[in-house]
Amino acid sequence: MPLIRKPLLPKRVISLLLAALLAPAAASAFTPFVVQDIQIQGVERVDPGTIFTYLPVQPGQTFTQEEAATAIQKLYATGFFNDVQIDALGNVLVVTVEERPTIASVTFNGMREFNAKEITSALMQVGFGQGRIFDEAMLERATFEIKQQYLAKGKYGVQVTPVITPLPRNRVGVSFDIFEGDVATIDKIEFIGNEAFSDGTLLDELELTTGGFMTWYTGTNKYSREKLEGDVERLRSFYLDRGYLEFSMEPPQVTISPNRENIYVTFSLHEGEPYTLSGVDLAGDLLGLQDQLEALVTVKPGELFSADKTNLDAKAIADYLGSLGYAFANVNPSPLLNREDHTTQLTFYIDPGRRVYVRRINVGGNTHTRDEVLRREVRQQEAAWYDGSSIQLSKERVDRLGFFNDVDITTEPVPGAPDQVDVNIDVKEKPTGMVSLGAGYSSTDRLLLSAGISQDNVFGSGNSLSLSVNTSATNRALVISHTNPYWTKDGISKTTSLYYRRTTPYDVSDRDDSGWYTVESMGLGLNFGVPITEVDRIFAGLTFERNSLKDIRSCQSGYPGVDCGVNDPAPWAYQQFVDTYGDTTNAAILSVGWAKDTRDSGVAPKKGSYTRLSADISTMDLRYYKLSAQQQYYWPLGRAFTFAVNGQVDWAKTYGSSGKGFPVIKNMYAGGIGSVRGYEGASLGPRDPLTNTFLGGSRRIVGNVQLYLPFPGASRDRTLRWFVFGDIGQIDTTDGMPCYRGEYNEVADPCGWKYSAGLGLSWESPLGPLQLSFARALNAKEGDKKQAFQFQIGTGF
């Protein structure tokens, strides 16, 4: 590209740049002159004033050969021009420029791995994008950047072809045609220098793998630079956790086959020898708390050094100091190596820093929920000493509200005040209003439908209001419930509920062995919950209920299994209930209980437990008591797995001297989602001897174990998980009641233990909670009702 072209004017014109470049002989041909005027030619978008700022002369001043060369260099340096020419026409200085085009648009064709916004943002960081000056060098840099983005994803066969389209007004459109190719897969992973651990042991620590049976699904055999860097750190941590303090490794060698489809990775390791702890000390400013701090140290002399345990101890010390107000405490574990006997002296150097107090607590991200709903869960007070344990507890309490997908609490120093911090609570709200829809299908109940509308955070107040309707073939229910979690400032909650339930047997249109009956229940309840600790709550309530049995068709023979002479008689158990209690009963039910919740999240818990004990005592026409217990545990396994256990026991019995059996309308049921999957809903337990109707029972035991696993591609989304599970359950009777096996004893073992196993998917989707399960009944016997696939779905608003 020439720096100066032939002058455009045919008259007496002096090419100043040519004179500047031609050394002494040409210099004598150029005579400096006094500039009377300056003219700018060729500008379209660049403001002429910009060019004037780069000229070292103004009208009335003398213009020299050296100044001409300097002006051209400066104008080129702006990057705005392809060509610059300075001419003199008489005493008029003429500056002629050829502007570089600007980029009017940047588009991508054939790109599927990224969205356009991601790549556009990456190109802007290297100076290439819409509105920028077009430059061939920058185009090459942009093309290289796009390729780098694909190489980081393991797509080594990517081809990027830029296409430039001239547009009016000196503009260009830039389009990148992209052929992505396939992701290169890992064909071989090799270790060099490992003696203490086998290749198989080290391979188990890596996220990247070679091809296998499930890699089509997991994708772990697809090369990724980010995954490789993570594996390097995993190997380093693996050795440091086993005492290899002198472990080192060279950067992994990554080679690719000529067809750019297969990757070979080689790790070169230098293991060294494992080190044993010879002693553990505390040093620094211990604040007179040496005994308390030493109790937090779990590593002991004689053990192999473990970086993981050491870091956990350092964190425990820092957290303890944080609970005392030392928000910026620094604990630095430092091992001193003795290479002769391969031992190390470990010293925790402690710098508590300055004790600080909280100036202000800021709440953000809650566009719907009121500030007070979050603040009343916060246990850290403003203008009080900083307490790290209270801040952590506050985060857990806010998370357990169930109103937010994400809760983040950060601490920020106050500028100019070294003894003050601000605590920032940032939340990401989720839909708390829900229109829930449930659906299922079974051979006996046909299509099952349910619906409901609820708002767990009414007008952002934290109160919940719900209206639910069950429209299944056998049960119809209308329940209205309102809960105020802070009925008093001390956190006493109040729940008021009004309900109507109508229960009928299975559809008799095509089942000769189903009897007909209707149970209608209406009730009004008032319950209170009283917090006794941060995680414990006792509750008590009273419910008045009226039950009516209608359409009872009695069996005239008086004994099941004998022709009654009645079309579709009612189940034998319900006929006996009417004979014993009458067709209308009233009951006042007193409920008391205790619950403890230490789970870390109300959306998708990873750790903690939930315990609930309760007792119901009914008086008036129905005299019985029911004892219930439930226990849940959650254990994190590694970074992304959670193991959960649930157990529930319910046991009920009548009291008094009447000798009446337990009322069948209060029986408990099991089977299906929420109890023992793989069996039809409510199908466990006794069957009516006259109609084979599911009767439920007065004793229920259910147990579940579940392993949650991250969903591929969504490991950071804790609301989307799939799981494998095992269920066990049993429904039986008390009060000496027999376990009916159905008409003609067609069910082999209705009250026996039932087992199942399967897999499922749970997702707190924007449309509401979704749960799918596919289960296999492991010990089904003759007469048991099985149902493999079950699901529930909700719609949010």
Please describe what this structure looks like:
By secondary structure, this protein is of the alpha+beta class. Strand 8 and strand 9 (171-179) form a beta hairpin. It starts with 12 loop residues before the first strand and ends with a strand. The longest helix is centred in the first third of the chain and has 17 residues, at 136-152. The strands form 8 sheets. A 16-stranded antiparallel β-barrel has the order 20-21-22-23-24-25-26-27-28-29-30-32-33-34-35-37. The chain has a 4-stranded mixed sheet with strand order 1-5-6-3. It has 6 domains: 13-99, Ubiquitin-like (UB roll) (Roll), CATH 3.10.20.310; 102-179, membrane protein fhac (Ubiquitin-like (UB roll), Roll), CATH 3.10.20; 185-270, Roll (Ubiquitin-like (UB roll)); 276-351, membrane protein fhac (Ubiquitin-like (UB roll), Roll), CATH 3.10.20.310; 357-429, membrane protein fhac (Ubiquitin-like (UB roll)); 433-796, Porin, CATH 2.40.160.50. The chain is 17% helix and 41% strand.
